[in-house]
Amino acid sequence: MSKLTDIISEYKRLGIPDQIDYEKLYLYSIITHSTAVEGSTVTELENQLMFDEGITPNKPLAEQLMNLDLKNTYTEALTIAKQHIDYSVELLCHLSGLVMKNTGTEYNTMLGSFNSAKGDIRLLNVKAGRGGKSYMSYQKVPQRLEDYCNWLNTQRRNISADDIDKIYELSFLAHYNLVYIHPWADGNGRMSRLVMNMLQSEFGVIPSIVKKEKREEYIKSLYKSQTEGDPAAFVDFMCKHHIDNLDSIIKDYKKSIEDDTLNLENDTLNDTLKLTDKERQILNLIKSDNNITIEEIINKTGFSRPTVTRAISTMKDHHILERAGSKKNGHWVVC
């Protein structure tokens, strides 16, 4: 997963997570795609208006409630994740009840009744879609869910907060193993993606999104892993999918910077267009703080000292940048 580590470094270096409202909008994207995988047609913009303004979309009520329930669940779940609380069957069932709060139903079986809107563990056997694979017998679910929590808590304690690859691998395995158990009559996919994102949030890495456009590949990777009894295919898909998502965000971000540059109406337009990505990043830092030091630029960008000094020298030569005053007490002037 070294490529994943590299692209995350680039993502953070560009300062993308520091954008205004980025965290909230990214969360809305997670919610929208998670419900879309289950059939919801509510868009990200419609969710944003519904969550923030109370403006309901012209979509089926069940879909609106599905998205609102998941949003409320994430709000609580991510708070729990930051507290580093151990996972338990009770906690998972509580979260499942929130996921299914307004769209769940009561089931009556030979063994008694249970309610998915309350997060009750299923008392019946289920299949993956019409004619699909049968999941674990309901009789085994309680103990397997208990074992799952013990496994997950042990893994969480033993993993290093600096080992990005292992953190993602654990989160993908947690997702896969929970789907494999399939503890509830409904909402298992949303719950598995929720737990995955909780783990990622707990360790401070960028949460992954299962895009609706990749729904078929996502399901196929789950089926392949379950059929082969090996989670490798699913973990590999999730890793590549996360890399692709972040790469797309990075490209869009760089394009937005280039578009901003193209819209500049000043004498340095032609010179600015000739800047390399590194020079442009350094210039943007200087624009935001004209007292920034060389050391601070090095720390913020991760560039070497020769790279930074060379970039500044080039911008001075092109009359894009000047230094006013002394090295110690002076400041930068963007021409």
> What structural category do the secondary elements indicate?
mainly alpha
Helix content: 55-70%
Order of helices and strands: HHHHHEEHHHHHHHHHEE
Shape: elongated
Main sheet? Answer: 2 strands, antiparallel
Strand order of the largest sheet: 1-2
> Uncertain segments of ≥5 residues (pLDDT<50)?
264-273
Q: Total domains, how many?
A: 2
Question: How far from one another are the termini?
Answer: 43 Å
CATH superfamily of the largest domain: Fido-like domain
CATH class of the largest domain: Mainly Alpha
Report Rg. Answer: 24 Å
CATH architecture of the largest domain: Orthogonal Bundle
Per CATH, what is the topology of the largest domain?
A: Fic-like fold
Integer average pLDDT: 89
Strand content: under 5%
Number of helices: 14
DSSP, total strands:
4
Explain this structure to me?
The protein has 335 residues and is mainly α. It folds into 2 domains: 2-250, Fic-like fold (Orthogonal Bundle), CATH 1.10.3290.10; 267-334, Winged helix-like DNA-binding domain superfamily/Winged helix DNA-binding domain (Arc Repressor Mutant, subunit A), CATH 1.10.10.10. Helices cover 61% and strands 5% of the residues. It has 14 helices and 4 strands. It has helices at residues 2-13, 22-37, 44-53, 61-82, 89-99, 141-158, 164-181, 188-202, 215-228, 232-262, 269-273, 277-288, 294-301, 305-317, and strands at 106-109, 112-115, 321-324, 331-334. The strands form 2 sheets. Strands 1-2 form a two-stranded antiparallel sheet. A two-stranded antiparallel ribbon has the order 3-4. It is elongated, with a radius of gyration of 24 Å. The model is unreliable at 264-273 (pLDDT under 50).
